Structures are given as C-alpha cells and as structure tokens.
Amino acid sequence: MAKIDAFFKLMFDQGASDLHLVSGQQPILRLHGDMERVKYKMLEDGELKAMLYEIAPELKIKQYEETGDVDFGYEIPGVARFRCNFFNQKYGCGAVFRQIPTKVNTADELGLPPLLKRAALLHKGLVLVTGPTGSGKSTTLAAMVDHANKHRKDHIITIEDPIEFVHQSQGCLVNHREVGTHTRSFSAALRGALREDPDIILVGEMRDLETIRLAIEAAETGHLVFATLHTTNAAKTVDRIIEVFPHEEQGQIRSALSTSLKLVVAQTLFKRVDKRGRCAALEIMVVTPAVANLIRENKTFQIPSAIQVGKQFGMQTLDDAIMEVLQKKWIGADEAYNKCIDKAKFKPFLKSAPDEWGG
User: Averaged in consecutive runs of 10 residues, what is the pLDDT profile of the chain (359 residues)?
Assistant: First the structure.
C-alpha cells in the first residue's frame, strides 16, 4: 500500500471532494465546499515528493519534471478513483486530488430533470454541460452516459484527461481513452474516433479550436457528442464557442452550431443548509427553432429571454433554478444572492442589506 493511500482513505471516510497536499503546509481536505486542515505535521518537500512519486507512472513523473504540471488518474480498488494534479509552487511541490466515486450515480439519484435523460437518447447533436471547476459537470455527464449505456445498444467512446468515471459496458460497448496515455490530444482522439464506428462520443473538455471544430463536425455527421466547457450560462457558452474561431469563420460556425447544438446545461453548486452536502441549480437551454435562429443571426443576447419563455420545452433560467432550491430551504439566502444573476429578485430574502461590493 502506498503511503499516500492513508490520506485517500481519510478523504473517502470524511466524504471530502478534494485533498490538497502542499510543501510547507498541513494536508487540507475540501469538505462540502470548505477547506479543513487535517491534524498532521507540516509536509516537507522531499517527503511529499517521495509520496507523490510512489503513485505516479514513470511517464507522468518525467512529464512533471519537464513541465512542472501533470494530470493522471489513480485508483484504490474498492474505495475510489482520484483525479491527480501535480504542480510546482514557491515552496516546492504540491498536488490536488479530486475524488471520483467508483459507483456512477444515476440521473434519478442526482435528481436531474427528465429532459437530461431524454438527451442521452438523442441520435445525433451536441449536448454541453458547463459551469466553473468543481460544479459537478463530470458527475452530470456520467449520469447521462450511464442512462445511454443502460437503454441503448450502441458504441460509446469517452475521451478524458484523465479518465474519471469508469462505465462497465451494459447495453452499449464503452471504450475509455485517456489523453497523454492512450492518445496524444483531445483533437487527435476525436479525429480517430470518427473512424472507430462510434454512436456517442464524450469529450472531457473542449479546450481549443481544433477540438471544438471536430466536436461540431461529429455532431453534424450523425453522432451524439457530450462535452464540457468552463462557462457560467447558456448564452456565454454559445459566445465562447463562436469567439474561438477566426472572424471570417464565425458566420459559418454560427450556422453549424444552430443545427448541431441540442442542449446546454449550465451548473452551479450550492452548500446545503438543511443537511451535509451540496446541491446543484441548473440553467437549461433547449435549442428550439427560435433559439437556433438567435444563434444563426448573432443575437445571443436574447437567449436569456428565450429561455424564460421556453418553459414548456423544459427550459429554465439559473435564477429560477436557484429560487426553487431556496424555497425548498435547501440553500441559504446569502449564497443564493451571491450566485444569482438578478440580485433584486433575491434581495428580499436577505436578513440584512447586502454590502455595496456584493451589489
């Protein structure tokens, strides 16, 4: 057993989402969104590096020593998988580990809207799950892939850096590919995937122009593509994709996106006040003919209004989703106010007037 496994087991037992190990600091767990120090000595650089190298593949150690950063996956059988990131900082080495449960939560267990289960059964198109780092994008996508795996008879290819949730083939054949281990890059894997007879392709992150271009092409040519982006709402997601491309290509991409994009889910996580844990509020945009026209005509500033009037299609704004969990008394008014869009709508729920900085 690796020495660091004791920290992973503590992390698992405490229900922490992340473990931070940094030279010159005590170990720190992120518990339900808060950073909590572990009662342990300060970590010395040499000791920590030895612990980290014990679990890292040789290729990843070489990459870390050459670049100062590396990502990979690590698993303790029967406990959990961990997404590992090593980095250098002022006082030596550091690492952050994100816990990935070995069991994939279903869409029903996560309380996801039925619309997301229907999206997992689409035959083609682009489905995006967006949000800041740590907002649960991978968990939502894993539930959608799980639903497809159970209810379809197709070929699923996942491309991630590193592999996170592992799906056992059920109705579908599932192949997992890890960037840096099984393929050179997201774009190289996507290009290869189109020759591997896939029905569903999961792209862990659309990081660059080439990956975005290939994902849109795959969605246009009869594949269902799931992907993530680090954007905070549906309108910004569309803008972000288009702005990646050179100006002379943007009209063509708007047209392609208007036909290939099917659904955008923008997630925000909140700390629960009724019990330990966190919950998500989801903004949902369905690309109806009206929304497709806004994308094509470069009128993305009107998308929030289209979402507001599209409730019969399953659409909802982030503020409506936040209001729903606030009225269930799952989250606190202060956090709802801090993360909402329309501050005036949530101001009456506050016990005291907000400061000027918070709006």
Answer: 92 93 96 91 95 94 95 88 94 95 90 95 97 89 97 97 92 94 91 94 93 95 96 94 96 96 96 89 97 97 96 95 95 93 91 65
Please give the CATH number for the structural domain made up of 5-101: 3.30.450.90
pLDDT at 359: 47
3-state secondary structure the chain: CCCCHHHHHHHHHHCCCEEEEECCCCCEEEECCEEEECCCCCCCHHHHHHHHHHHCCHHHHHHHHHHCEEEEEEEECCCEEEEEEEEEECCEEEEEEEEEECCCCCHHHHCCCHHHHHHCCCCCEEEEEECCCCCCHHHHHHHHHHHHHHHCCCEEEEEECCCCCCCCCCCCEEEEEEECCCECCHHHHHHHHCCCCCCEEEECCCCCHHHHHHHHHHHHCCCEEEEEECCCCHHHHHHHHHHHCCHHHHHHHHHHHHHHEEEEEEEEEEEECCCCCEEEEEEEEECCHHHHHHHHCCCHHHHHHHHHCCHHHCCECHHHHHHHHHHCCCECHHHHHHHCCCHHHHHHHCCCCCCCCCC
End-to-end C-alpha distance for the chain, whole angstroms:
51
Q: Would the pTM of this model clear 0.90, i.e. be above it? A: no
Tokens 């690492």 found at: 95
Angle, in degrees to the nearest 10, between helices 234-244 and 250-260 = 140
Domain 107-346 grouped into CATH 3.40.50.720: no
Q: Structural domain boundaries of the chain?
A: 5-101, 107-346
